[in-house]
Amino acid sequence: MDGVEQFMAHVRARYRPHEEIKCPCRKCLNQRDKSQAEVQEHIEINGISKMYTSWIHHGEGDNDVVQDGELPVVPEDMSWDGNDQAPLDDEGQAEDVILDDSERGVQGLIQDLYTAASHGVGANLYKQIMEEAKRELYPGCTEESRLSFIIKMLHIKVYNRITNFGFDAMLELLSTSFKNVTSLPKSYNEMKALLRKLGFGYVSIHVCKYDCALFWKDHEEDDHCPVCGFTRWKVNKEGKKKVPHKVLRYFPIIPCLQRLFISKQRAQYARWHKEKRVAVENEMRHPADGEAWKEFDDTFKSFADDPRSLRLAIATDGFNPFG
Q1: How many helices (H) and strands (E) would you count in the chain?
Q2: Which pLDDT value is given to residue 56?
Q3: How far apart are CA 155 and CA 95, in angstroms?
Q4: Which residues pair with 248 in a beta bridge?
Q5: Is 246 helix (H, G, I), strand (E, B) or coil?
Q6: CA torsion through residues 140, 142, 144, 147, sign
Q7: Is 188 helix (H, G, I), strand (E, B) or coil?
Q8: So what's the pLDDT on residue 109?
Q9: What is the structure's pLDDT at 208?
Q10: Strand locations in the chain, DSSP E?
Q11: What whole-number distance in Å separates Cα of residue 238 and Cα of residue 236?
Q12: What residues contact residue 37 under an 8 Å CB cut-off, 6+ apart?
């Protein structure tokens, strides 16, 4: 807590008491303006961003001294070219998946696949993944499987915003420097293909340039928008591959929901609100304690009676479907 007090003392010396400031916690990442009291609460709960060592958004000048061992600040408007997946908002998320054994991480995901297949759940779907999970990274390697190493590499790529070109160069270096590691993919595209087999891919759907309609289902083969009539394609030289004006990345929701029940442990978490939660009067500790949830249960009783039923909320704030 000494660090929090030091930061807040720095802020109070430079801002008026009621002046809002940017919140540098690991959730907000200097993207949201909040009151100083809210900022202090956020930092105490979420922790301050590890990359925010020079407080440039809170009055610290460029000439202030940076102590030994501190990391440089990553600008908020840092470009992010070459990645097909969005960077993680919570800087601890990727670290948790890779390092935190209590959350099971990559090894837990692989174990889920084994468990599901051994019980006949999606056995055909995961047969090839099981074979991949058994493959050694190199002869005699017991610390990592080929699959776990690949997943960790992809997390590092997204977490550090490494471009496709840079990632391919890193893979090439690994393949030429470690001759005994012969099973690694040679490019980012090969790694993505493997990831899709885990069910984490997306569907590309062409979109009208003016967002009138999707070229999907009945309009999948159309060359012009069914609403405004504008062409689906950019102007191309004759004989070249057609390029759409816009492409929507659609992540099918059903496989995501099914994965919640592949693992016995995760399935128990999904049913916790019905089977283990203890309601306390006038206290809200879970969305199930809220009036909206209770009203939904009263309206759809058969849905609410089954603890496996899932309520779905989707937020698109800040998400670019065409990026």
Answers
A1: 12, 5
A2: 76
A3: 9
A4: 205
A5: strand
A6: positive
A7: helix
A8: 52
A9: 94
A10: 21-22, 33-34, 203-207, 214-215, 246-250
A11: 6
A12: none
Rounded to whole angstroms, the Cα distance separating 208 from 213 reads 6
The pLDDT assigned to 320 comes to: 72
Residues of the chain with pLDDT under 50: 62-107, 117-121
CA 174 distance to own-chain centroid: 26
Note the pLDDT tens digit of each residue in 60-99. Answer: 654 433 333 333 333 333 233 333 333 333 333 333 334 4
Is 275 in contact with 307 (CB distance < 8 Å)? Answer: yes
Q: Considering only CA atoms, which of 35, 33, 18, 29 is closest in space to residue 52?
A: 29
**Residues counted in the chain:** 323
Exposure on the CB side of residue 13, measured as CA atoms within 13 A: 8
CA–CA gap between residue 30 and residue 66 (Å, rounded) = 19
The DSSP output letter for 200 is: -
Percent of the chain with pLDDT over 70: 73
Say how far apart CA 146 and CA 322 lie, in whole Å.
32
CA neighbours closer than 13 Å in the CB half-sphere of residue 34: 17
The single-letter code of the amino acid at 102 is S
Residue 207: exposure state from Cβ atoms within 10 A (0-12, 13-18, ≥19)? buried
Contacts of 159 (CB under 8 A, 6+ apart): 87, 88, 91, 94, 95
Contact residues for 315 (Cβ-Cβ < 8 A; gap 6+) = none
Partners of residue 233 on adjacent β-strands? 244
Compute the half-sphere exposure of residue 91: CA atoms within 13 Å on the CB side of its CA.
Answer: 16
